[in-house]
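A.,

Following up on our hallway conversation. Structure tokens first:
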């Protein structure tokens, strides 16, 4: 069975109740309209691919409850999901990616079970949200832009906390690939509230394994 990332995104169903829930929020609806260039995809680490798989339990179990993060909805650009155009070099062309046109976006419902300070999202959970969303983003970029069997490993993650995230709330995480330099993949992300105010920013560096990669 083909277990490629894009194949799983195309074939694992997205819960309709999650789509219906998030579509009721005005700042979400543009991403779900018929004219949107984005398509809902599974947030893969919330799904158990095999029953005995013990990976990703933090997202699939620990913070997947009614009082933590009961719902998450990921979306990817339709052209990248449906008609990827692989490149033959290790330099990935990334036109039009940025905060106004992110590659991969995530909406999350945050409840009081992820608080640190009173009615405030725990900073470590916020960093974990960035880490997970960026990881899914870079894997999609790798398959559409530079396919192969190399692994992408997190080398660094820097989070800039601009203001507190008050819970309960709905947040938007935008992620995009900034550039590549040989085996180095540089990505950025923003977390916004329902008023489109940027609450936190992140940048990360992934290193491609040497297999099927050039220095």
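Then the amino acids I'd put at each of the 215 positions:
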């Amino acid at each position: 069975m083909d277990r490629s990332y894009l194949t799983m995104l195309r074939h694992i169903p997205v819960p309709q109740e999650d789509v219906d829930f998030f579509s009721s929020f005005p700042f979400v609806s543009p991403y779900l309209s018929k004219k949107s260039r984005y398509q809902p995809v599974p947030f893969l680490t919330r799904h158990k691919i095999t029953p005995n798989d013990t990976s990703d339990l933090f997202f699939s179990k620990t913070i997947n409850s009614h009082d933590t993060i009961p719902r998450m909805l990921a979306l990817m650009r339709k052209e990248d999901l449906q008609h990827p155009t692989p490149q033959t070099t290790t330099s990935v062309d990334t036109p039009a990616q940025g905060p106004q046109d992110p590659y991969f976006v995530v909406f999350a419902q945050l409840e009081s079970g992820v608080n640190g300070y009173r009615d405030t999202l725990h900073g470590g959970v916020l960093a974990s949200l960035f880490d997970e969303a960026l990881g899914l983003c870079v894997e999609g970029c790798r398959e559409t832009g530079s396919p192969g069997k190399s692994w992408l490993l997190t080398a660094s993650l820097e989070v800039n906390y601009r203001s507190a995230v008050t819970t309960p709330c709905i947040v938007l995480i935008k992620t995009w690939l900034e550039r590549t330099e040989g085996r180095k993949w540089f990505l950025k992300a923003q977390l916004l509230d329902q008023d489109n105010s940027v609450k936190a920013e992140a940048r990360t560096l992934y290193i491609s394994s040497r297999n099927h990669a050039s220095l």
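The radius of gyration is 17 Å. Curious whether your intuition agrees with the design.

B.
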